[in-house]
Structures are given as structure tokens and as C-alpha cells.
Amino acid sequence: MTENFPRVVSASRDIGTSAERIFELIANPEQQPEWDGNDNLSEAVHGERIRGVGDVFVMATTSGTTRENHVVEFIEARRIAWKPAAPGQPPFGQLWRWELEPINSSRTRVTHTYDWTQLSDESRIPRAQATTANKLQASLVRLAQLAESY
Asked: pTM of the prediction?
């Protein structure tokens, strides 16, 4: 049953650096395991920078599976979103979104959203339910630490 769980969760944080610097960390899949608050990602293909809608980047998970992430939203240094899928398959139905809003040249509000309103695979629902705003906030904390240390 999913009625007691929100199907869209978000978290926001102000990060002390430019939107461009933060976006580079998000748009470079190789960096993602360093800031993933779900501790679900292990590695990505080296040098696979996301450039736009339609890009697909491959990520290995800590459980040993491989995901193809289909980029469905992209505005350089402002917004990026993808839907994960098994290799060669359509996306499962979840959406991971990052929105960056510059406050000034050295401060950015980052909002991370997980939307599983289109997820229909019952076997994936427990994991989706476990992806809470606190997990998204953990990613934002790690991302801030990494971005602010550059």
C-alpha cells in the first residue's frame, strides 16, 4: 500500500558556491557516488558528462546492478532530471530532479526532488517509499561539502 507515503518528496539547501560549480558535480555521473545520500551508487563510466535531454548515462549500484539513466530535463547550470531504467528497457517510472537557483555569484539554492508518481512496478515500491526527504537532504549535505571544498 502506498497511500500513507508521499509520491513526491523534496529537500532544499543553500550551498556556498556558484550554480555552475554545483551543476558540474551533478552533471558528471562519475561524481555522483560521492554525494549520493541513498548510498546506492558505486561508479559511473569515466568522462560521461551530461549535455542535454536524451542523453543516457550508465551507473553501477552498490547492489551490483547497472542502471541506464535517461535525461528528461536539462537547462545548463539550472535544472537536470533523469529516469532510471534497466539496460535496454524503458524507465521504471521514478524521476530524480535537481534545480539550482542562484542567490548571488557565490551562493545557490539547490532543490532535490524524487517523484515516483509514475512507478507501477510493485517490487520497486518499498525502495521508493524509503526515499524520504531526509535521504534527499543527506545528498544535499554531501553535495554542499564537495562543492564548497573546491
From this structure: 0.90
Q: pLDDT per residue over 35-81, tens digit each?
A: 776 656 555 666 678 999 999 988 877 777 788 999 999 999 999 99
What spatial distance separates the first Cα and last Cα of the chain, rounded to whole Å? 44
Domains in the chain: ranges and CATH: 10-148 (3.30.530.20)
Strands 8-15 and 79-85: unpaired
- Rounded Cα distance between 127 and 125, Å, is 5
Q: What's the grid cell of residue 89?
A: 528497457
Per DSSP, the three-state class of 127 is: helix
d(CA 55, CA 53): 6
Q: CA dist 56 to 20, 34, 86, 115, Å?
A: 21, 20, 12, 19
